[in-house]
Amino acid sequence: MSDAVEKNPWSGLKAFTNARIALGRAGNALPTAPLLAFNLSHAQARDAVHQPLDADALRRELEAAGFATLGASSAAPDRQHYLRRPDLGRRLSDESRAALAQAGSDDNEKPDVVFVVGDGLSAFAAAKQALPLLNAMRARLDADRDAARGWRIGPVVVASQARVALGDEIGELLGAKLVAMLIGERPGLSSPDSLGVYLTWAPKVGCHDAQRNCISNVRPEGLPHEAAAHKLHYLMTHARRLQLTGVGLKDDSDALLPEADEAGRIESA
Known about the structure:
Blueprint: H1 32-50, H2 55-64, E1 69-73, H3 79-84, H4 94-104, E2 113-118, H5 123-146, E3 156-160, H6 166-174, E4 178-184, E5 195-201, E6 212-218, H7 225-242, H8 259-268
Parallel strand pairs: 1-3, 2-3, 2-4
Antiparallel strand pairs: 4-5, 5-6
């Protein structure tokens, strides 16, 4: 008996992408296996949006790795408000604002950079990708310290019900020159755990997206942590030199990659 599934001639291309191509056909519909895989991916994407961030557990992991942390939450009281009222996710709750203002009023030197980890639209991404990325960044920032280009790094702020702009208010209250918001991206059907990084110079309430640089799809299957750290370190270094981020700061970090790394990156793409 012949196979009822008609094979797609593009099948050889599937080895080079996670995109849903060359799925075959059974009559007028998808074969059962790819249909079930699509439904599973759709469910995982929905779960990523609605799953709450275990901020306490993430802070414990960060502190065990040697990072000082602070907690914060937006003005959105729960996930439903967060999804329906994006504006609430861009501003701190009154309690968090007061706590961070107190932390920022200490006599210690103001930080050059504050890293904020926010759940965004995928708590999975924040929980899985933030710590490996921060570890990769710490190695680079430690090397800068050895070369007399040191960075004063503030505590990592773990923020719940967070939108990108929440980092602006956090950075402003802590007196940071730069804020790097590590936030869960809107899940795709093959990437429910993708992290985005938004870098803003002179953060303050009211900054707009043209004032930021973005690094997206940070995850092992997308932009690996070491590669993302390379880009972020490049952007941070030049943001401090030029005292700006956004459309005036170009990401030419790939030009600094060793030829062997570049060849390997292309070959594995």
